Amino acid sequence: MNFAELRFWEYLLSGIGIIAGLRFLFSGWLKGKEQWFDKLALLGLGLALLIAVSWVTFIIYLVVSLVTYVGLGWIQRFHARHALKYLWILIPLQLLPLVYYKYADFLANGVLGLDVSSLRGLLIPVGISFYSFQLVGFVVDTLVFKHPLPRLVDCMNFAGFFPQLVAGPIERRGDLLPQMENFRFRWLPKDIDDGVAWIVVGLFFKCCLADNLANYFNRSIADNAYQIWLANLLFGLRIYYDFAGYSLVAIGLGRCLGVKLTLNFMSPYCSTDIGEFWRRWHITLSQWFRDYLYVPLGGGRVRFWAFNIAVVFVVSGVWHGAGWNFILWGALHAAFLIVVRLTGKLRLPAVLAWSTTMLAVFVSWLCFYEVDTTRMFAKLGMLLTPHAYSVSALQSTVAAIPAGDRIVLACLFGLVATTLMAEWQSVRRLNDSYAYLRKKPVLIGLVILTVLLAPGKNNGFIYFAF
Fold first, then answer.
1. If DSSP states are collapsed to H, E and C, what string results for the chain?
2. Is residue 1 domain-resident?
3. Is pTM, for the whole model, over 0.85?
4. Count of domains forming the chain
């Protein structure tokens, strides 16, 4: 479900039109049964949109969801007294498709060196990491807190609510399930007005900023420090506006339907330390690892707290992708957090604190996008080489960009800087991320910019591959 494609909106509006037509035609028969119809219609709409993405994705999602529901019901019915022991059976079953499609090639060929050709090039079903983790959390919350098993239709809508199915946010049982149990198509003007504002900002982030930044990203240069930094900057900005853009559109679609999803990003590039960055970046994943891994390991109150941080972030790196580069990316962020905690009493001026944080974040993006570990270490070495920052290297970087592209890139960075300033002011003055961007006069400007500046070539959402 690519929100940046016109096809998605055609399918969505067609589906909503069909639902509205059926409600009107069978209004008499549905009297007193409207909520059941709405729940089934929502489920049908979500499944139809998923089928439009890929039949394989649809089947894998259906298998994981049904295994979760049937397994959970079996545990509660026959093994309620020892339910937590059966987590060791059900969770691996839930994660089995994820492990096969995402990690089998890396484990068999990259780690064990088995050279299993049939595992190479496996296509990862869209969103498998997101709904798998959401369903694992659902199982743990249900059994640990002894919640009853919901109706199948409510569970399926919780697992497959289409705005957030393929790229999050990763919702929790206590937040989303009650909304699914009480779901109705109400179409309240206030909800639609609020939802449209989020959608406009999200599409501006994706289509105007992220897609244009992607056109200038070049990972092939490994012998020029300035060009490597430019690639890091472009990628870091692109992945933020791409992923945050998707999440904001998801929030907006949810609001239009009367459902409140968790805000997954809160202007992370306004952070002044790495801990704050992770409280603002991919929030629902950070909270998932905190509650289901970090706290069970002992959290930060035990002597080996640094080890716990390292485990969480290395696992987080593995969640993002099967490769040594992702492991190193997670390890770097773990090291940054450990250093920040060890120097917690040190207070830097705000500008210096922000600059140091952004330096750490953007240098680590190199380990995220460069999958060739040999090239990755060569680039890291180049960034750490003082004589690599010569005037001739800078001149070479400027000369490599055509004159027209320099102007366009400068204007694009200016637009990004203006957007980041609006985010900063929203956070610092109103404590409400993106508040200024959601003002009606600003929204009109964002619509105009998106229409005028969105490139003709559509770039898929980066996190669809995770």
1. CCCCCHHHHHHHHHHHHHHHHHHHHCCCCCCCCHHHHHHHHHHHHHHHHHHHHCHHHHHHHHHHHHHHHHHHHHHHHHCHHHHHHHHHHHHHHHHHHHHHHHHHHHHHHHHCCCCCHHHCCCCCCCCHHHHHHHHHHHHHHHHHCCCCCCCHHHHHHHHHCHHHCCCCCCCCHHHHHHHHHCCCCCCCHHHHHHHHHHHHHHHHHHHHHHHHHHCCCCCCCCCCHHHHHHHHHHHHHHHHHHHHHHHHHHHHHHHHCCCCCCCCCCCHHHCCCHHHHHHHCCHHHHHHHHHHHHHHHCCCCCCCHHHHHHHHHHHHHHHHCCCHHHHHHHHHHHHHHHHHHHCCCCCCCHHHHHHHHHHHHHHHHHHHHCCCHHHHHHHHHHHCCHHHCCHHHHHHHHHCCCHHHHHHHHHHHHHHHHHHHHHHHHHHHHCCCCCHHHCHHHHHHHHHHHHHHCCCCCCCCHHHHC
2. no
3. yes
4. 2
